[in-house]
Each structure stands twice: as C-alpha cells, then as structure tokens.
Amino acid sequence: xxxxxxxxxxxxxxxxxxxxxxxxxxxxxxxxxxxxxxxxxxxxxxxxxxxxxxxxxxxxxxxxxxxxxxxxxxxxxxxxxxxxxxxxxxxxxxxxxxxxxxxxxxxxxxxxxxxxxxxxxxxxxxxxxxxxxxxxxxxxxxxxxxxxxxxx
Length: 152
What we know:
The protein has helices at residues 5-13, 59-68, 71-83, 90-128, 134-150, and strands at residues 31-35, 41-46, 51-54. The protein is mainly alpha-helical. It folds into two domains: 5-83, no CATH class; 90-150. Helix 1 (5-13) packs antiparallel against helix 3 and helix 4 packs antiparallel against helix 5 (134-150). The two termini are 50 Å apart.
C-alpha cells in the first residue's frame, strides 16, 4: 500500500486509544464475526448469547495486536513512512542493493581481466627485450593504452 490517504482518514476519524474492558452484559442484539485470511474465526460478538471476544489459538495475540493498533500508532507509522520518502520500501532498497552489488562484481571481474591482460603483454614485451621491431613497438603501444585505461 503506497497511498495511505484512506487509512490516514480512517485513523483520524477513529476514537483514540483502546479500552480493554470485558463487559459481563451489554444487552441488545449485536452480532459480529471477524475471520482471518485463512478463514479462521478471530473475533466473535453475540450479545444475546453472551459471547464476545477474540477466539481461537491466536486469540490473545490477536487481542494484543488490536489493542496496540490505535489510531495514534497508525498515524505515527504513516508519518514515519512519509518522512522516509513515502514510496521508499525495503523491497525497493533491497533490489537496488542487489543490482549495485552485481555491477560491482562485474567491475571487479573486468579489472581482474585487464590486470591479467596487462601482465601478459608486459611478459611479451620483456621477452622481446630491446630488440627493435614492429612487434616490440606494438607491445609498448598496447601497454601504454592499457595503463591509461586502468588508471596506472
């Protein structure tokens, strides 16, 4: 979710804080059920039959999350996200990091190949010695060009 406008409006309109009271009896006929993404019942309210609260294996954890998820907490997270640039997400940063690492590895490999090629041409040049020949001149020209490219 990159557009938090609707969530922010809901948080601003909601009652601040959470009250953790379990009422013995509320009367009336309110009935409500909330299910998790996996289809499990998370919250059940049936005042006529005196049933209410978070249910299931994760009932306590669900209730703790609900109590911590206050409008103020949501607004604080939205503000922090906006301070960080809004669309700057961990996944984007991670992808950019991986791309930069791959580019660095490629540059390292290129530098190693250039160093090996330079060493090979130096060996050829040293083997040719000071004998004046067209080949020796070419070897010196190649070494000069390779040294300029590698910054040496």
